[in-house]
Design goal:
Blueprint: E1 5-6, H1 8-16, E2 29-30, H2 32-40, H3 78-85, H4 88-106, E3 116-120, E4 126-128, E5 144-146, E6 152-154, H5 163-172, E7 178-182, H6 185-193, H7 203-208, E8 213-215, H8 223-233, E9 238-241, E10 245-250, H9 253-273, H10 285-297, H11 309-312, H12 345-362
Helix pairs in contact: 1-2, 5-8, 6-9
Amino acid sequence: MAKRVYTEKDIQNLIQSGKSPNELPEGIILTPAARDLLKEVPRGAVAKGLAQPASGASEPVLPDYTYYWERREDPRTPEAIEAFFHSPEIERIKERMCDIGRRMWEKDYVDGNGGNLLVRVGENLFLTTQTLISKGFMSPETISMVDFDGRQVAGRYKRTSECMTHLAIYRNQPKARATCHAHPVHATAYAVANVQPPTCMIPEAEVFLGQIGMAAYQTPGTPANAEEVGRVAREHHSILMVNHGVIAWGDHIEDAYWKMENTDSYCRTIWIASQLGNPLKTITQPQARELIELRKSLGMQDKREAWKECELCDNGDFRPGVVCRTDGAVPGNGSDPGLGDDPDPEILIREITDLIMVELEKA
């Protein structure tokens, strides 16, 4: 009788059904991915990130969508690459990329064929979205695979033209496993205005984003743009590309998308708050230090770790836009310093009227 082959999906189904790995039949054959998954599962326990049986006594776990490409060798031959490209585990990542693309489109983060996604699946292999496609209407068949030089090695449709910018992040930031680029309106507005979002405003942004980086403008898709974005990615999870959009990296494609969504929400909140007439309130420097330590405990680096406390919440370069006062307060009277004195409206009207009369007399 032929021995049964168990795939990674078979092991997941076994665990999700509430069974223990101890219940696997004798003499089975495990695929490499199935064997890797079993290594993560203590005998009698359930896998990290998978559903637990209702009666199980295991400790609660966090979901883990990370693809650990380091645990296996890259396929080398065209046949092996093609088989890997269509394997169940890679198909699941493709489906997740399509889901993220749809969410970006529904959130109005991309227009036309804008935006692109990459996921690292090997030492030298990356899944990528195709060029000239709406991210809201992708399917797994539209995903391609490239190597570190951007050469397409699998997939029917041509890879994104901004592939090299994403790959520059992976070259400069070894912790990156997935990247997400889009044009969310509020964050891109900051990028167009060349305004770096301030820090120390919202605790969640401090923990999950840290300081948002700024990459100087270079023509999209060019080596110069790739070099600039890669440089900034060494110290920032989320990057505003001046006059272009936003690119973020994370542990998996969901994580990279979360950082994109966090960035746009944060920029929108700060923009609205800057129009309310009062100075923006920051947390204290010691409180900022606590959040940086929390960020570090979650495995995220922060360039501000070695900064002095007086530097942590220095937003001296941030200049909010026009402020419309509706409370009768007079800016510049000491209650909100730095805005300057508004001219007396009666004097302003009289001066404008005089100028108009002068021009009428000339006519």
